[in-house]
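Design request, tokens follow.
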């Protein structure tokens, strides 16, 4: 099992090359996340493991008045996200450190939470999803995009991915991710596999936190 900080150390070093790498997978994965995210102006959206801020840039262009908060534990990635978002005039807030180190009161609650390409770096995905879901407002949505572990080429490539990408813990199958989201008390209202090429694809799962009865 990868050390929990291995991905953070890897991405800290890898940050300057990130936006030029894995684009055959990353670009379509952002589009997939954007299909499931439908925020209104004025709403609050949290991006967990935001990387270099590519998803925020796209969200900012689409919904200018969105209140965007990004959490990114790898300093190199977070610094790039800040620079890019600032120069694009996108008023997103980028917070350092993992989700667990944030003060929940200061962080607040969100209409939308997205974790794009983060799940396959976690040691305990169900526990992480349960924690993230605590930060959803009633009626809020959690959107997860992650490598499709149901694809045979990805399953066969896992040993290579583990040795090449620091902290890679393994790809998941659609039913597993749906179970994690349901286990966090959310109702799954979108669950899809999307193939980007014969060898690569991603999963999209969206869960909704119920509104309290009578609200
Ligand atoms: C493949 S990158 C994805 C970045 C961005 N979301 C994207 O799709 O381009 C994975 C990111 O997850 C972050 N990460 C690793 N472990 C994490 C954790 N426990 N909580 C949140 N983010 C984490 C890494 O620092 C890295 O920036």
């Amino acid at each position: 099992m990868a050390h929990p900080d291995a991905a953070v150390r890897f991405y800290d070093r890898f940050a300057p090359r990130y936006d030029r790498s894995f684009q055959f997978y990353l670009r379509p994965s952002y589009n997939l996340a954007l299909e499931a995210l439908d925020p209104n102006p004025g709403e609050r959206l949290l991006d967990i493991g935001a990387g270099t801020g590519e998803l925020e840039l796209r969200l900012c262009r689409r919904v200018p008045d969105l209140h965007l908060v990004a959490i990114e534990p790898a300093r190199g990635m977070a610094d790039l996200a800040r620079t890019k978002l600032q120069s694009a005039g996108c008023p997103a807030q980028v917070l350092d450190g993992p989700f667990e180190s944030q003060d929940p009161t200061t962080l607040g609650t969100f209409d939308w939470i997205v974790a794009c390409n983060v799940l396959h770096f976690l040691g305990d995905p169900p526990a992480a999803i349960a924690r993230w879901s605590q930060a959803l407002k009633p009626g809020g949505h959690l959107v997860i995009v992650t490598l499709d572990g149901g694809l045979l080429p990805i399953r066969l490539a896992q040993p290579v991915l583990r040795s090449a990408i620091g902290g890679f813990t393994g790809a998941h199958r659609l039913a597993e991710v749906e179970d994690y989201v349901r286990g966090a008390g959310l109702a799954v209202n979108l669950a899809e596999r999307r193939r980007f090429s014969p060898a690569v694809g991603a999963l999209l799962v969206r869960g909704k936190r119920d509104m309290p009865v009578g609200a």
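Comment from the thread starter after seeing the answer: thanks! The chain has one domain: 6-208.
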